[in-house]
Amino acid sequence: MKDYATIGNLRVSVLLQRFVEDEALPGTGVSAARFWSGLEAVLTELIPRNKALLMRRDELQAHIDEWHKQYEDDFEPEAYKAFLREIGYLEAETEAFEIGTRRVDPEIGALAGPQLVVPVSNARYALNAANARWGSLYDALYGTDAILDAAAGVGSYDPARGERVIAFAKAFLDRTVPLKEGSHREVVDYGLIEGRLVASMSDGKRTGLRQADKLAGYRGESIRPEAVLLRNNGLHIELQLDRSHPIGASDPAGVKDVLLEAALTVIMDCEDSVAAVDAEDKVHVYRNWLGLMQGDLEAIIVKQGQSSVRRLHSDRRYRSPSDAAFELKGRALMLVRTVGHLMTTNAVLTAAGEAVPEGILDAAVTGLIAKHDLLASGPLRNSREGSVYVVKPKMHGSEEAAFANVLFDRVEDMLGLERHTLKIGVMDEERRTSLNLKACLREVKERLIFINTGFLDRTGDEIRTSMEAGPMLRKYEMKTSPWLLAYERANVRVGLDCGLPGRAQIGKGMWAMPDRMADMLAQKIGHVESGASTAWVPSPAAAVLHALHYHQVDVRSAQRRIQAEDRSCPDEMLRLPVQRNPAWSAEDIQRELDNNAQGILGYVVRWVEHGVGCSKVPDIGGVGLMEDRATLRISSQHMANWLRHGVCSAEQVMETLKRMALVVDAQNERDPLYRPMSANYSQSPGFQAACELIFQGIEQPNGYTEPILHRHRIEVKQMRPQGRSL
């Protein structure tokens, strides 16, 4: 135990102790003695309750498994519902209430726009995401397949492609901030006269904005500005003017770019997209979060042999139409997603030598770090309202939401924070939570700032909860199944009924195909039309493109329309996605197995052997999909379910895994750090972990992948400490 220091009745990793005492605590007004004694008190009180909640999960699952075994051939929906109420899985109806959250930043309560989720373990990704508050529409269109046949390759500028980008952008301006007469395509000069935008047209006439209040400001000289700031649906658009720029020189009005306010918020993720399995990893994650909160995080970027330093962007300065100076935030508002209630970490041990709940440690350390922002100790501010935004994932039912609320109370007390400084985002991603969402929100109603339909984990939990009910639908059919559609509607409906607009975000899930921006533009507007005030995107460019949807749809109007509609039927969420008497062909079954196995192996091998928590993995059709532990949970549980019900055999699954390992090996052959699985299947940590996730899938708590992944990753790090790659 030489790597641990004894502090009170705790044994704390020396790495963590040094980080907390030498880096995180200074400047917070919290002494080391107060922090460690406070943490010990919180752990002593809450570890037994944490364990009891996990035992309750197992108890409920065992009851449900037995019920399905008994009534597999005689399923009666009303009897099933009554059974769930009897065991306490379905909770009593909650009386009407509205949340009372106070001190929220406008990005949470007033504005609607895209949201990024990024592994905070990667400083470059974290900085890119934080700086994605503003993004170039020209670059997002030119560099992707959004409006053209394919993404642009590396090379010289293509004028024909550029012309189509500019034409799209000018059409966007015509729809969003139209002129009284004519089109933005015809403008030859922009300027401000007496606080109004004046556009000089190619025919010699002058015009202004159809709605004068859409002018928000300018930069430079009013008569000849270098930037014109416009606003629509609360989001800003900046016309950048520079006739000396290569693009501006060829534009009649000198427009070199159209900058959009894009990612209003970003979730700095300590959970599904990272691989943090020990004290070393946890300190790395915490250190990057500290850099973000202190405003001094840096990353060295090397491109074409040239290095540069990436930092957080400063705020943007403008003058109002009445010539008053003002600033707009240059960065997305940062939330932090900590881990759920399940996992433990050996970064801190109890007196009995037990690893402590990782979620409790996360709450204490990330909260401590965020105090730097609350005290404005750095050059940049995150929350101007003095709040800390914590996204809490993987909670099951209102008991666990109440536990999170008590945990936040205790952390506020130990850090000397006002009550409800720590806000909570509730990931509506587990079946027991979505069925009892209103009761969950009531438990955190004074600190709630976010609900989100985490449809990926929600699907994984649906499969595991109903594992014994029968063989599950194929994955692509799951996306249109009644329970999933009802879940997406119910999440918004409950959020509106509980008064979230103006106080909290109502969110939707990730677009998982980062290379298919044309499809995203065509489809993801559905999230905005559904009444969601934010939705996840996989990249800064995707955030810019998704921002177009929030200009097209006024979210508050959509929410008022939904509130006037009939309520959705919650019973639809209880319709199981089971295929009774399946008649799939052998080819259909094999293709589903191939697709699942390829995704599992492509993700797991990099997680276990390289410590990469989020990867873009090609599916069986070659489409790159963003994979994390939530998608892994679906695929592994789906294969476990088909094995359980005899849709496929263990021999067929193993043959599929070995064949798909060859495919994944070929996909990674240019990576010098990659070790082929097929070289020795029995000695490949990644391959063995993938096998366990499937063949031991039913035994995993709620189908979660973390216990197996963590164990194998720790073994790899012990064998090859240099194996960690971020």
UniProtKB/TrEMBL annotation:
What are the alphabetically sorted keywords of the record? Acyltransferase, Cytoplasm, Glyoxylate bypass, Magnesium, Metal-binding, Oxidation, Transferase, Tricarboxylic acid cycle
Annotated binding of Mg(2+), by residue: 429, 457
Free-text function comment from the UniProt entry: Involved in the glycolate utilization. Catalyzes the condensation and subsequent hydrolysis of acetyl-coenzyme A (acetyl-CoA) and glyoxylate to form malate and CoA.
Q: What is its main location?
A: cytoplasm
- Sequence similarity: Belongs to the malate synthase family. GlcB subfamily.
Positions bound to acetyl-CoA: 117, 124-125, 273, 310, 538
Q: What organism is listed for this UniProt entry?
A: Paenibacillus sabuli
Annotated residues for binding of glyoxylate: 337, 429, 454-457
Q: What class of enzyme is it?
A: transferase
All copies of domain Malate synthase C-terminal, residue ranges: 589-698
| Location of the Malate synthase N-terminal domain | 18-69
Q: Which GO terms describe its cellular component?
A: cytosol
Q: How does it assemble?
A: Monomer.
- Name the pathway: Carbohydrate metabolism; glyoxylate cycle; (S)-malate from isocitrate: step 2/2
- State the superkingdom: Bacteria
**Residues with the Cysteine sulfenic acid (-SOH) modification:** 614
Q: What is this protein called?
A: Malate synthase G
Gene3D superfamilies recorded: Malate synthase, domain 3, Malate synthase, domain III
InterPro entries (alphabetical): Malate_synth_C_sf, Malate_synth_sf, Malate_synthase_TIM, Malate_synthG, MS_C, MS_N, MS_N_TIM-barrel_dom, MSG_insertion
Which EC number(s) does UniProt give?
A: 2.3.3.9
Q: Print the organism lineage.
A: Bacteria, Bacillati, Bacillota, Bacilli, Bacillales
Chemical reaction(s) catalysed: glyoxylate + acetyl-CoA + H2O = (S)-malate + CoA + H(+)
Q: Name one GO biological process term.
A: glyoxylate catabolic process
Instruction: Report the residue ranges that make up the Malate synthase G alpha-beta insertion domain in this protein.
Output: 157-232
